[in-house]
Structure formats: structure tokens, C-alpha cells
Amino acid sequence: MKSKMRFSLLTVLIVLIGGCSASKTEDHVSTKSMNNAHEGMGMTNGHMSHTNPLQLAPSTGENELAIPPLLEPDGKNPAHYSIVAQEGTTEFYQGVQTETYGYNGSFLGPVIRIQSGQTVQFTTTNEMSKETTFHWHGLEIPGEGDGGPHEQIEPGQSKKLTFPIRQQAATLWFHPHPEGQTAEQVYKGLAGLIYVEDENSQRLGLPQQYGVNDIPLIFQDRQFDDQQQLNYQQFKNNDGTIGDTLLINGTLNPKLHVRREPVRLRLVNGSNARNFTFMLSTNEEFQQIATDGGFLNSPVPLNKLTLTPGERAEIIIDFSKLSTSIDLSLINEEGVVLLPFTITNERTTPQKMQDVFNQFSTTSEEQQLPVSKRLELFGMGTMVTINGKQFDRTRIDFVQQQGVTEIWEIYNKPDMMGGMTHPFHLHGTQFKIVSINGQAPPLNEQGWKDTVSIEPDETVKLAVKFQDKGIYMFHCHLLEHEDNGMMGQVKVE
């Protein structure tokens, strides 16, 4: 993240007190802030941990990458899927059982593959010892089924949800969203994927052999204690918990076998707070083909790609055309090996990919619409706010009409230390980025999005339309910021 710390701890304390004083008109904000002002003051917390985060240990490549199982429907008309949140143990380190959470298993969850145009039914069951919710991140869904903090499922309880799939092909995900508890539940393993497919995705000539040349990659950084446990409370950071250990699909020290062919990687930043930058160790190009909510109009060649928490992207790496197959890996901007590749000599005859993937555009009408929703993101630690307020489930912050496009303007207000990047997420819809600081977004962000990275002192305009009615959350997707109240509600009527 781009923030810089040049101040002593005394200066940090002054900033925190000043921020709290400025919020005194909101009793629920100032009280919470004052009661927690001592938290996050250590040198491992606050802006410093994001300016110079813990460096990840490189993958040794000693373990085969786990591929999440595909969840098959257990009923038809509508297609029915059963998803169970549960507690368990997982062996990350040989001979050690780590206490974890998972969906339909001990850690992470399956891939739910659904088809645009069909009606689906989810039965969600909570077999954990604490309440949770099931949030369908990126799905266009009625507010009552979105899985926000209002829709808690108590231990031992189930909920059934039926809805039509009306959006285009995309890589989405699901995770918990209980008020004040999201960060820990995700940290301990609650996350799964949703693939939406449609007629267009089937005709594009893309790699589609699941787990072979169409591969999901959930990137998460974690820190294990001296007992190899995911002791969230020990490592919790109110500005986003950062770890030194990389897990991909829950695999420690993974490697991936690929053939000499184009391979589709569906990248998901499932971390609490760490940004992930992806590069090839040869610094050669790959192609980005999709954003959070669907395909780009055509592939965009890139040498590197950064995703903030909650963001997704699909890329194509053509392993038949790279300059070398020796010591080839996906690395980050520091050169740390994230995922080593082992390339087999087996060659295939891939389908020819189409040149045009989508017909996405921001219309001239959308570009000329006036701003009707203004949001200011500000603060750090337990004093993060949107428009000077922290989350209150009894308060509706905005009202919007169903099916009407409005322009939301989000400004990330810097503080005296420079500020932090905030990944802004809006529930229940996919939006268009109209502009970033008055300029068109880069080509690889000219597609459907539900999460957007906003740098300090940056202003982003979004074209937002909801297809369904209900109450939806908007918030920072640094999970500790979300838990600390950097969240609001829009009611769609």
C-alpha cells in the first residue's frame, strides 16, 4: 500500500485523538473509538504494517496444489446445492492438526458451478458453535438473500434461498459476513467459489478443463503461532491482519503441473488485508480476460497485475510460448515465489480463442450523469468511517430506485500519515468504473466490477444499478476495517 509513516508513536496518538474528537457529533462513533483507541498502537499495527508488510515466505513447491472439489447439485428444478459451515482440523504441517473452519469440509469450500438463466436453490446450514452468515460476493441477488449481517444463522440452524441467475459468466465467491466477526471467520477458512457460466463463455474457445487448464487460485496470507495454529486473536491487526505464510487453495508450499498449452488461472485475493501483485518470473506477458464480474471486451496483455482483498481476475498464460520452462513461477513484485510451475512435455491442440469476448461499455449517458451519492472513506484502526460514520444496522445511509443507474463518487481522504488503500465493495450488483481521478480506468478495469481499489487522495466514480430490491452493504474489504464499522447500507426500493 502507498501510505508512508514518518512520525513517532506520539504523533500517531495525537492523530488518533484528533480523529476521535472530530467525530464527537456521532455518539456511536466517538464512544467506540475512544474505548478502543489503545488498540492497534504497536509497531506491527497501523500504517507501518501495510507500508512494509511482513514478507511472505516463498513457496518451496513441495506440495501438489489442492484443487477445490466441484459441488454437484443434489436436486433439480431448481438446481439445489447444500452448503454447510463447519469446524474441523486441517493438516498444513506434517503431523499437526490445525483448528480451522470450512464449507462442506475442514478448510475453504467447494466450487459451485451454475448456469446463467437457471433458477438455483441454496440450503445453507450452520454447524459451527457460533453464528455466521453466507454472503454471495458478486452475485446479483435480492437483498434478503445477500447474506449481510442482518441474516445471521444461529448454530444448528439452516436457511433456504431460491433465486434466478441473470448475470453473465464470472468468477464469484462466497464467505461469511457476521457483524464484527467476518475477519476471524474468513481467516480460519470460510471461503468458497462460484462459477457462473453462460452461452458466451462456452463459445470463446477458452480453456475449460477444470483443474487441468482451468484452475481456481485462492490466495491468502496467514500467520501460524508456535503450535501451528491459526490464532487470529494473537495476530489481529485493526488495520488488516497480515501474515508471512502463503496458502493457495489452502495448500502450503504449493506447485502446479501444467501442460504446454494456454492455461486459464482464476485469481482470487481471499486475504484479510494483503494486496497481491502477480508476475511471471521471466517477466513475460500474460493476458487478462476477465474482471470481478465478467469478461473484458478482449484480452489485455500485462506483465503484472495487482488485486486488493475481494478482487478477482482471470488470466491466460500460454505455456507453449514462454521463453523457458526452467524455474518458472508466479511471483510477486518483490520476487517472492508464489506458485512454481512444473511444465510437462505433453502438448495439446487448444481451441482457437475468439478475439472479442464481450460488449461492455460505459455509455455517454452514464458518463454525463450527475453524482447522486458521495462517500468519503477515512481513518485507520478502530476509527475508520464512511462519511464520518460507523456502521449502524438500524440506519439506512442511502436510498436508490431499482433499475435506475446512479453515479456514486467515492473519495479516499488521506490522513497525516498518507492514508491507506481501501478496496471498496458494493453488495448485490456489478458496477462500472466511470473514472478514476477524472480519467478513464485502465483497460483491464473496463469491465464489470464489485470491488475497486481506491488509493489515498483518489476519487473514483461508479455507475451503479441494482436489479433487485432490498438492503445492501457497502464497505471497505479490508476485513478488519469492515468489522470495525467502515460500512454502510443502501436500500433499493
From TrEMBL:
InterPro entries linked to this entry: Cu-oxidase-like_N, Cu-oxidase_2nd, Cu-oxidase_C, Cu-oxidase_fam, Cu_oxidase_Cu_BS, Cupredoxin
Biased composition, class Polar residues, residue ranges: 46-62
Chain ranges of the Plastocyanin-like domain: 86-200, 231-320, 375-493
Positions of region (Disordered): 37-74
Keyword Protein transport: no
Keywords for this protein: Capsid protein, Cell cycle, Cell division, Metal-binding, Oxidoreductase, Signal, Virion
Leader sequence segment: 1-22
Tree of life domain: Bacteria
One term of GO molecular function: copper ion binding
GO biological process: cell division
Annotated family: Belongs to the multicopper oxidase family.
Official protein name in the record: Multicopper oxidase with three cupredoxin domains (Includes cell division protein FtsP and spore coat protein CotA)
Record organism: Lysinibacillus fusiformis
